[in-house]
Each structure stands twice: as structure tokens, then as C-alpha cells.
Amino acid sequence: MKLPVNLTDKFKLFDEYWTPKIVEELNDQYIKLAKLKGEFVWHSHDHEDELFYIVKGQLKLKFRDNKEVILKEGEMYIVQAGVEHFPVAEQECWVMLMEPKSTLHTGSTKAEGSVAVEDQEWI
């Protein structure tokens, strides 16, 4: 029998921003935790939806049509496959992500200076 996962304890295990850590897997999906602060990069995931659940803080998701969604603690949002988005966290934000194992960190974006994480760590 597996033990419950305490999200607060897991978040205490790392300090880096924009570097998701895998905490579980479910039906060929990873459940990841990430600390976010500042701006990420414009990116999309061509074939995968991405779920954002805000554990602590607030996250703004900008979209190319000049719309944006502001997520607060306890809220979630699913970015549909192929939708380009730009995450922004003005203050530190703790996020739980759920996405297929095949999802690349920055999707199809491979810009110079990209912050893509190729091998995500289990914690």
C-alpha cells in the first residue's frame, strides 16, 4: 500500500523556479509540482492538454488573442492542446500540473536561451 503524498512537504524539497518535479503518475500521466516566479516563455503542447492547479499564490496565463486567465489558490485551469500560453507569476506561486508523460516542458518551443527541462526529477 502506498503512502499519501503531502504536497506541502514535497514543495519544501526544492527551491528552483520553473523546474517541475514529478511526484506521482496516473494512467500514463505525470503529476508534477513546480514553483513559479516571474515570466516563463510562450509555448504550446501540440498534442497534450495541460492542467494547472494553484496550491499557493496566483498565476496569470496569457494567450495570443490578448486574453488572460488569473488563477488563485484552489483554482485550476486546463490549457487545451495546441493553445499557445505564457505563464506569469508576480510572486512565488506553487502549482500542481497534470499532463501526459510525453509532454515536453516547453512544448515545441526550442528558442535560444529556452528554459526547457529535458529530464524531470522525481521527488
Instruction: Give the overall shape.
Output: globular
Beta-strand content estimate = 35-45%
The N- and C-terminal alpha carbons lie at a distance of 18 Å
Low-confidence stretches: 111-116
Summed over residues and divided by their number, the pLDDT gives a mean of: 90
How much helicity do the residues have?
Answer: under 10%
- Helix/strand order, N-terminal first: HEEEEEEE
Structural class: mainly beta
| Total DSSP helices | 1
Biggest sheet overview: 7 strands, antiparallel
Strand tally is 7
Radius of gyration: 14 Å
What does this structure look like?
Strand 1 and strand 2 form a beta hairpin. The longest helix is centred in the N-terminal third of the chain and has 5 residues. The chain has 123 residues and is mainly beta.
Nutshell version of this structure?
This protein is mostly beta strands and 123 residues long.
Mind sketching the topology for me?
Elements: H1 7-11, E1 21-26, E2 29-39, E3 50-56, E4 58-63, E5 68-72, E6 76-79, E7 85-100
Antiparallel strand pairs: 1-2, 2-7, 3-6, 3-7, 4-5, 4-7
For the structure shown, list the relevant keywords.
single chain, 123 residues, mainly beta, seven-stranded antiparallel sheet, 1 helix, 4% helix
